[in-house]
Amino acid sequence: MPATATAFGSLAGSPFPNELIRIGSDNVDAVRQIQARLNEIGCGPVPVDGVFDSTVARAVKLFQARFPDANGLPLSPTGRSVR
């Protein structure tokens, strides 16, 4: 995936299979990947335990407030992640 230049440096994208991940999601592998990525880009700290709880939702909202989409448009801070 191509990298996107942001105020936080260049970030490589990752593929996403269009699965909505939110509080209570049971896709442990996807949640762990999201948690690790949130920590990596400075939107944590969140535990990498595969549990999507309110702490992770707040970190996702922070990510959504800081980063644009692939077209440079602002994201809507919903606290949910499409992975």
Strand order of the largest sheet: 1-2
Which structural class best describes the helix and strand composition? alpha+beta
Helix content: 25-40%
Count the beta strands.
Answer: 4
Oligomeric state of this protein: single chain
Radius of gyration: 12 Å
Shape: globular
Q: Name the average pLDDT.
A: 83
Largest sheet: 2 strands, antiparallel
Report the total helices. Answer: 2
- Beta fraction: 5-15%
Could you name the ranges where pLDDT drops below 50 across 5 or more consecutive residues? none
What is the rounded distance between the termini? 14 Å
Give the helices and strands as they follow along the chain: EEEHHE
Notable characteristics:
globular, alpha+beta, two-stranded antiparallel sheet, 83 residues, 4 strands
Outline the structure in words.
The chain has helices at residues 28-40, 54-66; strands at 3-6, 9-12, 20-21, 81-82. 31% of the residues lie in helices and 14% in strands. The protein is α+β, with helices and mostly antiparallel strands. The protein is globular and about 30 Å long.
Question: What does this entry show, briefly?
Answer:
With 83 residues, the chain is α+β, with helices and mostly antiparallel strands. It is built from two helices and four strands, in the order βββααβ. The chain has a two-stranded antiparallel sheet with strand order 1-2.
Secondary structure layout:
Elements (H helix, E strand, L loop, with lengths): L2 E4 L2 E4 L7 E2 L6 H13 L13 H13 L14 E2 L1
Antiparallel strand pairs: 1-2, 3-4
